[in-house]
Amino acid sequence: MSGESETVRLRPARRADWDLIRGWLARPDIEAWWGPRAATEAEVNIALNSGHALCRIIEAGGMAVGYAHAVDATMWGDELPQDLAPGTWDLDLFIASEEHRGRGVGQTALSQLKDEVFGTTLATAVCVFPSIRNERAVRAYERAGFRWQRIWNDPHMGPSWFMLAERPRR
């Protein structure tokens, strides 16, 4: 049993999860989705050691199936576009379990992470930077309420969409 019929939840990622996360990041399918291993390992390490990040293990049916984090974008310094508005958080996630892909788990996790950022921080917006070659990710982000801003040349992934979702109005 997998996918939509399972409960998807985000639990805090801990240092003890590092070997699991690192193993996932070493996989070619995850590298193709999220970027070169050295860069993604550094990114996750920075997030795990920061008080300005939400690091989560994605669970489906009680099983660890992926990783997600939301980071106050100012932490990345010059790594992100200069026109990124203050108060924007950068979101990243992947589903490592192939049997859980394409079944709504990533979409649910993305929605939960976005809601957590807006519910627990003063973030004005959240952003993502999927590769222009990763149409599946772009479509998933569109369904989650992200809108294209422009193409940005990511230093690790090359041409990427700069996509943004603003804080919901009350």
Task: Outline the secondary-structure elements.
Layout: E1 8-12, H1 18-25, H2 28-34, H3 37-48, E2 53-60, E3 63-72, E4 88-95, H4 105-120, E5 125-128, H5 135-143, E6 147-154, E7 158-166
Parallel strand pairs: 4-5
Antiparallel strand pairs: 1-2, 2-3, 3-4, 5-7, 6-7
- Number of H- or I-type helical stretches: 5
Q: Quaternary state, please?
A: single chain
The portion of residues assigned to helices is 25-40%
- The domain count comes to 1
Estimated radius of gyration: 15 Å
The assigned CATH architecture is: 3-Layer(aba) Sandwich
Distance between the termini: 37 Å
Q: What's the number of extended β-strand segments?
A: 7
Largest sheet: 7 strands, mixed
Instruction: Tell me the name of the CATH homologous superfamily.
Output: Gcn5-related N-acetyltransferase (GNAT)
Q: What is the residue-mean pLDDT, rounded to a whole number?
A: 89
Order of helices and strands: EHHHEEEHEHEE
Q: What is the CATH first-level class name?
A: Alpha Beta
Strand fraction equals 25-35%
Strand order of the largest sheet: 1-2-3-4-5-7-6
What is the general shape?
globular
Instruction: Classify the fold: give the CATH topology.
Output: Aminopeptidase
- Residue stretches low in confidence (pLDDT < 50, at least 5 long) are none
| Sheet/helix structural class | alpha+beta
Quick structural gist:
This is GNAT family N-acetyltransferase. It is built from 5 helices and 7 strands.
What report would you give on this structure?
Residues 8-168 form the N-acetyltransferase domain. This is GNAT family N-acetyltransferase. It holds the Pfam family Acetyltransf_8. 31% of the residues lie in helices and 31% in strands. It is built from five helices and seven strands, in the order βαααβββαβαββ. It has a seven-stranded mixed sheet, with helices on both faces. A hairpin with a 3-residue loop joins β6 (147-154) and β7 (158-166). The longest helix is centred in the middle third of the chain and has 16 residues, at 105-120. The radius of gyration is 15 Å and the shape is globular. The model has no long low-confidence stretch (mean pLDDT 89).
